[in-house]
Design goal:
Layout: E1 5-8, E2 20-24, E3 33-34, H1 38-42, H2 48-63, E4 72-74, H3 80-94, E5 98-102, H4 110-116, E6 128-134, E7 137-144, H5 151-163, H6 170-177, E8 184-187, H7 199-213, E9 219-223, H8 228-240, E10 245-248, E11 259-263, H9 268-278, E12 282-285, H10 293-305, E13 322-325, E14 331-333, H11 334-338, H12 344-354, H13 359-368
Parallel strand pairs: 1-12, 2-5, 8-9, 9-10
Antiparallel strand pairs: 2-11, 3-4, 4-13, 6-7, 7-8, 11-12, 13-14
Helix pairs in contact: 2-12
Length: 377
C-alpha cells in the first residue's frame, strides 16, 4: 500500500503532475436534506443566532411546542446536469485537468439515471450516498460506479435495507455492493457524530463498524464540508485500518466541491482500480476550504433561499423547495402549507439569511467566524 497524499491548493498545488481530477460526493435536487441543522449552524453566529432563538421562543409561547425541524427538509438547488457541469468546470477551469464527476444523492440514483439519457453521458458513474442504520446511529456509505445495467434493481434493494435494516445482514449487503471490481465503496465523514449520540459513543461505534466490515470498504473520506480537526481524526482512523483517504466535497449548494482527487487515470473505472488495488489516493483541498466553515454554510443557505427562475422543476421560490410533514403525516411544500401566511419566525429567518449576500455583512461575518486552524498532515 502506498501512502495517500494530502495537498492544499493555497500552499503547493501539485495538479501539474496529474492529468485528471475526480469530484466525489456531491448532491442534486434529488436529495432530501433535513432542516434540523439550522439551529446548530446559527447557534454562535453574530446577530443571526440570537434572532432565531428569539423567534423560536416566540413560536413555542404561541403554539405550546417547539418547531420540529426534523420534520422538514429542503432540496439542493442544482439539477443533475448543472451539478455535473459545476464540478467538471472547476476541475477543468481552475486546475486545467480532465474532469470526472460522481454525483451521490441520498439513497437515490435518479440524478445519475437522468444523465445517462443525455447524449454523450452514458459513461457517467451511477453512484449514491447510501444510509446504513447501525446500532444507535447510522453511517453514510458512498457507493460509486454501480454496474449501470444492474443499478436500478440494486438501488431498490439498498433502499429496502435502509428502511428495514437487519444488522446481521450488513456484511452480506456490503459484500454484494462491492462485488463488481469497478465499484468503489467509501465510508463518508466517518468521524462526524451526525446522529448526536455523543463523541465517545460515536467513535466506539465507527470502530466496531470497521472492525466488522473493513474488508468491504475501500477508502475513508476527508470531507470538504467538515472541520479540519475532524478530517484529521478521519485520517487517523483510516491509518488504523490501513485504508487510503479520499476526497468527498459533499457539495449541496452552488459552491463546487472543496476537495477533489488527483490521478493519471483516464476513466472512472481506472481510478477505482487505483484506489482498490493500489490502496492509493491523492487528495487536493481547494482554496475555498480555507474560508471559515460556518461562513461557507451560511453562504450555501443564502443560495438556497434565493429565487431561481430557471429551476429545473419550476420551483422558483424557496418555499417551493422546502417540504414539511405536518402532524397528520401529510407532506407538502411549505408554500402549499402556508400560502401567504408564512410564520413570522420563518420570514425572519429568510430575511436575515438574505443579508449574508450583502458584501459588508459578508465581510463582518468572515472576520467574526474566522477559525484558527493549522493545515498540516
Amino acid at each position: 500500500m502506498r501512502d495517500s497524499g494530502i495537498h492544499f491548493q493555497w500552499l503547493k498545488n501539485p495538479a501539474g503532475s496529474f492529468s485528471t481530477g475526480v469530484s466525489l460526493h456531491s448532491h442534486t435536487l434529488h436529495s432530501k436534506e433535513s432542516l434540523d441543522f439550522i439551529q446548530r449552524v446559527t447557534k454562535d453566529t453574530p446577530w443571526l443566532g440570537g434572532a432565531i432563538r428569539k423567534q423560536t421562543d416566540r413560536y413555542r409561547a404561541i403554539n405550546g411546542r417547539d418547531i420540529d425541524f426534523s420534520k422538514a427538509w429542503w432540496t439542493p438547488p442544482l439539477a443533475a446536469r448543472h451539478a455535473w457541469e459545476l464540478e467538471k468546470g472547476q476541475i477543468e477551469g481552475v486546475l486545467g485537468l480532465k474532469g470526472l464527476v460522481s454525483l451521490t444523492d441520498h439513497d437515490t440514483i435518479d440524478a445519475c439515471l437522468h444523465l445517462h439519457v443525455l447524449e454523450g453521458m452514458r459513461d457517467v458513474p451511477v453512484s449514491v450516498e447510501w444510509t446504513i442504520p447501525y446500532a444507535p446511529t447510522f453511517f453514510h456509505i458512498g457507493v460509486h460506479n454501480l454496474p449501470a445495467e444492474d443499478a436500478p434493481a440494486m438501488m431498490r434493494e439498498m433502499e429496502a435495507f435502509t428502511d428495514n435494516p437487519v444488522e446481521a445482514k450488513i456484511g452480506e449487503m456490503l459484500e454484494w455492493v462491492s462485488r463488481d471490481a469497478r465499484t468503489l465503496v467509501i465510508i463518508n465523514h466517518p468521524c462526524w457524530d451526525e446522529n448526536h449520540i455523543g463523541a465517545e459513543e460515536h467513535r466506539a461505534t465507527v470502530i466496531r463498524f470497521l472492525d466488522n466490515y473493513r474488508p468491504f470498504i475501500h477508502a475513508a473520506e476527508l470531507n470538504g464540508l467538515r472541520p479540519w480537526d475532524e478530517n484529521q481524526k478521519a485520517a487517523d482512523l483510516a491509518a488504523r485500518y490501513k485504508l487510503p483517504v479520499i476526497s468527498g466535497g459533499d457539495r449541496h449548494g452552488r459552491e463546487p466541491n472543496a476537495n477533489v482527487n488527483l490521478t493519471n487515470a483516464t476513466t472512472f473505472s481506472e481510478f477505482v482500480d487505483e484506489v482498490r488495488s493500489d490502496a492509493h489516493s491523492e487528495v487536493l483541498f481547494m482554496s475555498q476550504y480555507r474560508d471559515p466553515l460556518k461562513m461557507r454554510i451560511l453562504e450555501n443557505m443564502a443560495d438556497i433561499i434565493e429565487d431561481d427562475p430557471r429551476h429545473a422543476m419550476g420551483w422558483v421560490k424557496w418555499s417551493d423547495r422546502v417540504f414539511w410533514e405536518n402532524p397528520d403525516g401529510e407532506v407538502k411544500s411549505v408554500g402549499e402549507h402556508w400560502g401567504n401566511k408564512v410564520p413570522r419566525v420563518v420570514n425572519r429567518f429568510v430575511n436575515l439569511m438574505s443579508l449574508v449576500k450583502h458584501r459588508r455583512v459578508r465581510s463582518v461575518l468572515r472576520v467574526a467566524l474566522e477559525e484558527n486552524r493549522q493545515f498540516a498532515v
